[in-house]
Amino acid sequence: xxxxxxTGLPKGVMQxxxxxxxxxxxxxxxxxxxxxxxxLTEATxxxxxxxxxxxxxxxSGKVVTYMSCKVRDPDTGKSLGPGLVGxxxxxxxMVMKGYYGNEEATRNSFTSDGWLLTGDLAYYDENQYFYVVxxxxxxxxxxxxxxxxxxLEAILxxxxxxxxxGVVGVPNEEAGELPLAFVVKNEGVDLTEKEVxxxxxxxxxxxxxLRGGVIFVSAIPKNPSGxxxxxxxxxxxxxxxxxx
Length: 244
Description:
Blueprint: E1 2-4, H1 11-14, H2 20-27, E2 34-39, E3 46-49, E4 62-63, E5 68-72, E6 86-91, H3 103-108, E7 116-124, E8 130-135, E9 140-142, E10 145-147, H4 149-157, E11 162-172, E12 176-185, H5 193-201, E13 213-216, H6 230-242
Parallel strand pairs: 1-2, 12-13
Antiparallel strand pairs: 2-3, 3-4, 5-6, 6-7, 7-8, 9-10, 11-12
């Protein structure tokens, strides 16, 4: 069995007939199952796991036994219901007591009633399956709305002309931030900025549109584990603006 502990795996990764990596794992490494989950150091191990044999595309699974989880509005602290995105919080025997020798960090990591704040945005459905969306600090603040870059990236990656993508917020005096996409085109395809903007606009609500525009690049900066380095994208944006 292979466990994946990132955000929910895309549908294509979970379907063995469409993904070379999965076929390789099945046939050459004799790994029959890819099991999705979510965990963090502060909670010891995985605290959300998909049961063996269960599949829910995009979901990390359900909360493990003996642990409690809620989704909390980052601004009001109010617990949110199914389908609403907020910060993941945990309670239970697997949660740390605190950071050794760092009382301030410990205080900032818990609510007043003892819930561990993960800094991760997620939601759950009516059947208690959880879906990790993005990091709280990565949110794009457009007017009174919060836009998760990972949501827009997933939509853009469904376009067959797009090989890779990274989304950041562009500072704007009136709106706060505007979503902008760095896009890597698949080789040999024609793709314009307008096509990309329209592709997203047809699939999202108004506040999530790419009002900041599109910049075509040769590669998206990532760390060794494959996470997008948004700080590097922001540097690229500054460099791009200076050349205009």
